[in-house]
Amino acid sequence: MKTVLKGIVPPMITPLNDLDTLDVEGLERLVEHILAGGVSGLFILGTTGEFSNISYRLRYELVERVCRQVKGRVPVLVGITDTSLVESINLTKKAAEEGAAAVVAAPPYYYAAGQPELIEYYQTLAGKLPLPLYLYNMPVHTKVMIEPKTVRKIAEHPNVIGLKDSSANAVYFRLVQYIMRDKPEFELFMGPEEITADAVLLGANGGVNGGANMFPKLYVDMYNAAAAKDFDKLKALQDKIMQISSSIYTVGKFGSSYLKGVKCALSLMGICNDYMPEPFNRFQDEERAKIRQSLEALNMGLTLK
User: Fold this and answer.
1) Strand partners of residue 42
2) Are 158 and 211 in contact (CB under 8 A)?
3) Mapping DSSP to helix (H, G, I), strand (E, B) and coil, where does residue 180 land?
4) CA-to-CA distance for 250 and 258, rounded, in angstroms?
5) 163, 151 in Cβ contact below 8 A?
6) Residues above pLDDT 70, as percent of the chain
7) Which residue ranges make up each domain of the chain?
8) Which of 48, 52, 123, 147 is deepest in the core (most CB within 10 A)?
């Protein structure tokens, strides 16, 4: 990464036809759909990309296909989160070969690491990678928070360039902003779209927002309005984003409902398949009808399948 990244970097879903087969045509449509919205980058193999539920072979294929399709139009960020340091390094080597700009790693999951262990882990990882590294704070899935002082310590490594925070903890994010205030080159991105505008107003670099899979321009416009402090425009855009959050993400009863909603919506929009790898499954007729109603209520001029 030669320049500081700012704006919306969608965490792309992984379109699948079955458990171990990419929906290649859907993937190609999705990439072009997202890029047409004016996004600043593309993040693959994150939580929204279901990295933990797909094979290593499929991860490598996705990196290859996306990087070759994007062809440098925007930076591609590749998620390398794993319980194995070796596998994270191997995937980064593939990402570098294919022209990715940087990689993103949450703490290793299953065993919860202590803060001193996280510092050692990330500094070791960063020193072995051929690409710059973003930290990824995702405590709901990793069972550990990368504490602000830990972020500061890890960021002493020159190959660590930023943080994506998906904790939905605004106080945490503000503490990280404060503790990193003398390092403006260190990039801070907000995950939850419901509070991205607030973060940008206070100096964050941008958002890694799942809704930008469906409506990339909406989220880009939100970022631009927040960066320009155009509060009248921002209010209308934020209301639309909250409508998406409170309708599409709340169908179903489980933690996977957000992801099922995004994939179902993209299927109804005719962009890609909504297959989900086990242990999850796609929405059936009743839920699909609710997602269709939510999309129609957004009044975004969609033609649904």
Assistant:
1) 76
2) no
3) coil
4) 7
5) yes
6) 99
7) 7-230
8) 48
Residue-wise pLDDT for 67-97, tens only, equals 999 999 999 999 999 999 999 999 999 999 9
The three-class DSSP label of residue 271 is coil
Compute the average pLDDT of residues 232-259: 96
Separation between Cα atoms, residue 152 and residue 176, nearest integer Å: 8
142-184 pLDDT tens trace: 999 999 999 999 999 999 999 999 999 999 999 999 999 999 9
> What are 179's two structure tokens?
């503790």
pTM above 0.90, yes or no: yes
- What tokens appear for 284 in the block? 């059936």
* HSE toward the beta carbon, residue 284, CA cutoff 13 A: 3
Strands 16-18 and 21-22: antiparallel
Q: 7-230 — its CATH code? A: 3.20.20.70
Token couple for 157: 């490594």
CB 204 within 8 A of CB 173: yes
How far from the centroid of its chain's Cα atoms is residue 279's Cα?
21
